[in-house]
Amino acid sequence: MNGMTHSHAQYILKSESDLDRIRTKFLQMCARAENMVGQSIRSLLERDARLARSVVASDPALDNLELEIDGLCIRYLATAKPEGFELRFTTTIMKMVTDLERIGDLAVNIAERGLDIGPRPGLGPGHEIEKMGEAVVDMLRDATDAFVSLDSSVEARLRRKDKAVDTYNRQAFKTWIQVMTTQPDDVPRALAYTSVSRYLERIADHAVNLGQMILLLVEGLDVRHTR
Questions:
Q1: Could you give the C-alpha distances from 62 to 7, 105, 108, 185, 220, in angstroms and in order?
Q2: What pLDDT score was predicted for residue 208?
Q3: What is the pLDDT of residue 63?
Q4: Measured CA distances, 139 to 11, 71, 132, 151, 191 (Å)
Q5: For the chain, what percent of residues have pLDDT higher than 70?
Q6: Is residue 226 assigned to a domain?
Q7: CA 181 to CA 178: how far, in whole Å?
Q8: Helix (H, G, I), strand (E, B) or coil at 210
Q9: Cβ neighbours around 23 below 10 Å, total
C-alpha cells in the first residue's frame, strides 16, 4: 500500500494548481539529472569529449530549475498555508531538489574527469565503473517512477541497490590501488577513475535520499539517520 488516498492522487495528477506546476518542474529536473548522469558515464566510457562538454554546459539549467522550484514551493507555502499531504509534498520537494542539484554536480565531475583523461588510448575505466554507472542510472529512474506512482516501497529497493554500488566501489578502489603500485605510467588515469568511482557512489547515496523523501511523502515516515 502506498498510503495515498484516491482523492489526493486525483488532486496531484489532474488539477490545474500550483502543486501541478511544482510537480511538473520537479519531474523535469529528475529527467535532466538522470540524463546528465547517463551522458557523463557514456562520455567517459566512449571517450567522447563533445558529450562530456555538453554535460558540463547543461549544469546551469539544472541549477535554475532548483531555484525555480524552490521559489514556487515558498510561494505556495506562504499563500496556500497547506496541511497534511500537501504540506509534506511541498517540503519534501524542496529537499529532493537539493539532492538532484548535487547529482548534477557529480555528473559534471565525472564528465570533467573524462576530459582530463582525454581521447588517447590507454587504461580503460573497467568493469566496476561501467556496472556502477548502470546501477545509479537505474536507481534515479526508479526514484522518479516511484515519485510518480507514490510507491513508498522504493526506499527499501534503493537501499538494496546502494549496497551493490558500494560493493562495486570497493572492488574498483582495490583495482586502481593495484594499478598505481604496479603501473606507474597509468597513475594519473587510475586516480581519475578512483574519483569517478567515488562520484558514482555518492550519486547512489543521493538516490537513497530521494527514496527516503518519497517514503516521508507517502507515509509520513522519516527514516533519515535511522538506517
A1: 32, 9, 11, 37, 28
A2: 97
A3: 97
A4: 27, 27, 10, 14, 26
A5: 92
A6: no
A7: 5
A8: helix
A9: 19
Provide the CATH number for the domain around residue 109. Answer: 1.20.58.220
**Does residue 227 lie within any of the structural domains?**
no
Which amino acid, 216?
Answer: L
203 pLDDT above the threshold of 60 = yes
Amino acid identity, residue 200?
Answer: L
Rounded distance between C-alpha atoms, residue 218 and residue 122, angstroms: 48
Residues comprising the chain, all counted: 227
Backbone angles phi, psi at 154, to 5 degrees: -60, -30
The three cell numbers of residue 35 are 540524463
What is the number of H-type helices and E-type strands within the chain?
7, 0
- Residue 64: Cβ-neighbour burial (10 angstroms; 0-12, 13-18, 19+): exposed
Total count of domains within the chain: 1
Q: Is residue 178 part of a domain?
A: yes
Give residue 46's domain range. 6-219
Q: Give me 87's grid cell.
A: 504540506
pLDDT score of 214 more than 60: yes
CA 94 to chain centre: 15
Assess whether pLDDT exceeds 50 at residue 153: yes
Return all residues near 135 (Cβ < 8 A) that are at least 6 apart. 161, 164, 165, 168, 204
**Plot region of 156 (φ>0 → left; ψ -120 to 50 → alpha; else → beta):** alpha
Q: Return the closest-CA partner of residue 138 out of 28, 34, 62.
A: 34
- Tell whether 172 is covered by a domain: yes
Work out the mean pLDDT of the chain and round it to a whole number: 90
- The grid coordinates listed for 23 are 510537480
